[in-house]
Amino acid sequence: MDVIINVENCYLLLLLALIVSIPACLFFLVRLREAIHSSRRLPPSAYAWQVVCNMSMSPLGSLANLAQIYGPIFSLRVGALLIIVASSPKTAMEILKARYHMFSGRYIPSLYYRIPRMEQSSVLGAKECNDGWKYMRAMCHNWLLSVKAIKLRNEVRERKMMELADYLHAKEGEIVTIRDVVFATLANSMGNMMVSRDLIDLERECKSGNQSLMGFIGAMLTVLGSPSLVDLFPILNGLLGFWERRKAKKLHQEFKSLWEEVIEERRQAKCTGEEPSQDLLDALIDNGFCNDKICALLMEMLVAGTFISCSTIEWLMVELIKNQGVLHKLRNEIENTGDGDIKNASSRHMPYLKACLKETLRLHPPKLFVLPRRALETCTVNNYVIPKDSVILINIWALGRDPMTWDEPLKFKPKRFLESQLELKGNVQFEFIPFGGGRRMCPGFNVATTHIQGIVALLVHCFDWFLPEGINPDNLNMTEKFGTTVYMKEPLSLIPRSRIP
Ligand code: HEM
């Protein structure tokens, strides 16, 4: 009797095991089939070692270069991340326009979101285009980035430009690092547009090489652009998560020390009924933002609004030094418009200045890739499967150097833009997209062009520029330093001589 019961139990157990395991097996087989099927149709795959072991460039730089081997779209598996790199106008158009809703997600390394309140107040880092993103983007547009907001702050921006001119007049005959003076001017201009206050002392900061604020913004950009080991191998989260949290806390403390005092002062001024400054900070306080959220947003705007424009101006200046014909033509245009008054140069019609800016952004895009996008759903591009959550990089660098689009692509020829219909944004064929495209396109376009055109017009109109002894335009070091932003490896140093009192 006992034996019979045991055998029955065994049968029952076996039956149960079968019932449980059949669906599990089926599920496993389906997933396996899906995985094999989709991996077969993934874009051609490059090897991670080709990127990491490229000794002459950083991983980002070599990733941009791999387009020459693998063509318009390829994939790369690095740890848990599947990266898709698109390098032709057609693929860029398919991703940013035809399937924009699928690719409107953003991929930002996890450390960024560990900074308190960053995720809730970020425009740039918003994981998708949700209501929070819309709200923050609209706030920034209304109070900082729109043409109307920029016009409201014309006077203070022009004052910052004049301070730059005064500083350079005083430095006549001395070597000046262009990056430092331009960065300081941009930071103060952004500071005044956001919180009605200077952020750094031009004189003092240029002496110390802007290490404090510039170094900090550089660190933020690295966080934005470099996935950590935890991103690549999430299994390490338990082990390294602590270290990431500590790093995020340190960054948070640093930007609190930059903004908290001005926020508190403004809150107090509001209590005592002082006249409002009507800037972004006022708007954020009036809309009930807490200090952490305000700090996070101000920091993001400062990071986005200084480094990239600074690098663009440095590249433009070095190209002008190397191409004296272009410099003279540009100077003529500035002198012949608005009676040589450069105060509101950025708002005047100066097609050659604009062409110089476009040509600089084509040949030396400060961002090699459109800020990484994330696939919100599995979909297809060029008949290849792009799995959900893939990281999408659109290779602006390769687009700007494609010989199919550009005649003599490696030459600096602003004239090409005078003869073409290509604009800085909104080009239908997507062959030139320095500000990205679609819903997540750069909202700082107006601020960037106003700053860059204004500062370049001032530098070109008010000063003659000479290279330090022993350097001539032909042996100038044009090596790029690839990172989240592409910089000149050796900062451009020039000697100013005043042309206009
Ligand atoms: C030469 C100057 C600049 C260049 C070349 C540039 C380029 C870009 C690019 C390529 C993107 C990604 C767009 C996409 O995903 O399609 C971007 C995003 C962004 N940029 Fe700029 N940018 C510049 C200046 C600025 C300035 C001055 C600001 C603000 C003051 C700014 C704020 C932003 C923000 C907030 C985003 C994120 C938008 C979103 O995700 O919704 N940028 N920029």
From TrEMBL:
Family to which the UniProt record says this protein belongs: Belongs to the cytochrome P450 family.
Entry GO MF terms: heme binding; iron ion binding; monooxygenase activity; oxidoreductase activity, acting on paired donors, with incorporation or reduction of molecular oxygen
Binding residue positions for heme: 442
Record-linked Pfam families: p450 (PF00067)
Keywords, comma-separated and alphabetical: Heme, Iron, Membrane, Metal-binding, Monooxygenase, Oxidoreductase, Transmembrane, Transmembrane helix
Main location: membrane
Transmembrane segments: 12-32, 213-236
Membrane topology: Single-pass membrane protein
Cofactor: heme
Protein name: (S)-N-methylcoclaurine 3'-hydroxylase isozyme 2
Compartments (UniProt record): Membrane
Gene Ontology CC terms: membrane
